[in-house]
Every structure is written in structure tokens, then in C-alpha cells.
Write a structure and sequence with these properties.
The protein is 24% helix and 32% strand. It is α/β, with parallel strands linked by helices and 214 residues long. It has a single domain (2-210), classed as Metallo-beta-lactamase, Chain A, CATH 3.60.15. Helix 1 links the parallel strand 3 (25-29) and strand 4.
Length: 214
């Protein structure tokens, strides 16, 4: 598999394009505000054809790029079922201070249609097999995305697990107990590369050995 990344300016969200070896089709993972130009550059340079967008969770910094991305590529969107409500009024799903900061970014927002992802659901697209692993705690619908192709696997962890850290649980919809259970589930995953929603990548085994939250 090939993984390409562009970083959205707002809160530096990692937005990914992924293709299976020998394929021109690809998927996107997460859609940060103003990520469309960066994704377009990747698509043009690599001659890719996007077929779907997968969202790791519904926080505004990971979804507000959908308007511009879908204007360029009219493809289906997938999001954990419990986070779908967050697309209706994204600024109102965070704390009041965040909501005020987000107002200029959501003034032209219109919630797109999304397909619900539930735990253990599998989607096959672009030569890839994407399996959803429900991982609530950061948000109710946070989802780990296990992506497999030709015997290779990578995992997109969103804001559940970062290199050396985990996602915060103090925002509306956060739950420390649920996060603890999600981390236990993460610890059972194979030792493969992970691609978080912010910051550098890592591996499952490296995080289990060095991340102070495990």
C-alpha cells in the first residue's frame, strides 16, 4: 500500500490518501478544513482516482473540509454511526469557546450525506478492505480503521492513539472509561503501522512499549 498525507492548516489534521499496490483508485481518510488543495495535489501527482472518504470521528477539525472535497470528488462518505449527529451542527458539538472559534469556518456549512460505520463492518473499495473497529472515548463514534491489501495492514487511529499520547476525553461526548476499554482493544491489534489524526506515525508495538497511557 501507498499512504500519502497532507496536513490541514486548522489544528494540523493529517488527511490521507491510500491506494493498494497496482491500483490507481484510492480512498481518503479524514477531511480537515482546507485540505482539498493538498489532496488535489496528491491526486494529480500520483494519477489517483478517489472512490470514498472515511472519517475517523466527527470532530469539526476532521470533517469541515468535506464541502470542498466533495465539490471536487462526489464520492461516498463513511463515519462511525454514533458521531453522525455531529455533522448537523459541528460547532455546537464542542465546548462554547471552541464553538465561537469555529463560527467563521461553519458559516457556509451544509451537512453531507454519510454512510454509517458500525463495529466490525467491512467495506471493500479501491482494492482495499477497510474494517471498522469502534473505539469510543474521544468521541462516541471514534473508529479505528484497519486497512488491508495483499497481505499488508495499516491502521488509521484518528484521535484515539497518537505517537506517545492518546486523545483527550474532556470534550462533550468524551468518556474516560470508554477510552480505557478502547485502549485495551487497541492493545490486541497486530504490530502494524499506525497513522494518527495528528502528528507523526508509529506502530502498534512501539506504542504498547513506550506510550505512557498503556
Amino acid at each position: 500500500m501507498d499512504v500519502f498525507v497532507t496536513r490541514a492548516e486548522f489544528l494540523e489534521v493529517n488527511c490521507y490518501a491510500v491506494r493498494a499496490e497496482g491500483h490507481d483508485d484510492c480512498i481518503f481518510v479524514d477531511s480537515g478544513f482546507d485540505c482539498a488543495p493538498g489532496l488535489a495535489e496528491i491526486v494529480d501527482e500520483e494519477n489517483l482516482v478517489p472512490l470514498a472518504i472515511f472519517l475517523t470521528h466527527g470532530h469539526p477539525d476532521h470533517i469541515l473540509g468535506l464541502t470542498n472535497v466533495l465539490a471536487r470528488w462526489n464520492v461516498p462518505v463513511y463515519l462511525g454511526d454514533s458521531d453522525r449527529y455531529r455533522l448537523d451542527k459541528p460547532a455546537e458539538t464542542l465546548s462554547p469557546q471552541f464553538a465561537q472559534m469555529l463560527q467563521p469556518l461553519v458559516k457556509d456549512w451544509s451537512a453531507p450525506e454519510v454512510n454509517a460505520l458500525i463495529d466490525a463492518q467491512t467495506v471493500e473499495v479501491a482494492g482495499l478492505t477497510i474494517t471498522a473497529v469502534a473505539a469510543p472515548g474521544h468521541t462516541e463514534g471514534s473508529t479505528l480503521l484497519r486497512v488491508q491489501a495483499d497481505g499488508e495492514e495499516i491502521i488509521f487511529t484518528g484521535d484515539v492513539v497518537f505517537a506517545g499520547a492518546i486523545g483527550r476525553v474532556d470534550l462533550p461526548g468524551g468518556d474516560a472509561s470508554a477510552m480505557a476499554e478502547s485502549l485495551q482493544a487497541f492493545a490486541t491489534l497486530p504490530d502494524v503501522p499506525i497513522y494518527p489524526g495528528h502528528g507523526p506515525g508509529s506502530r502498534v508495538g512501539h506504542e504498547l512499549a513506550t506510550n505512557p497511557f498503556f
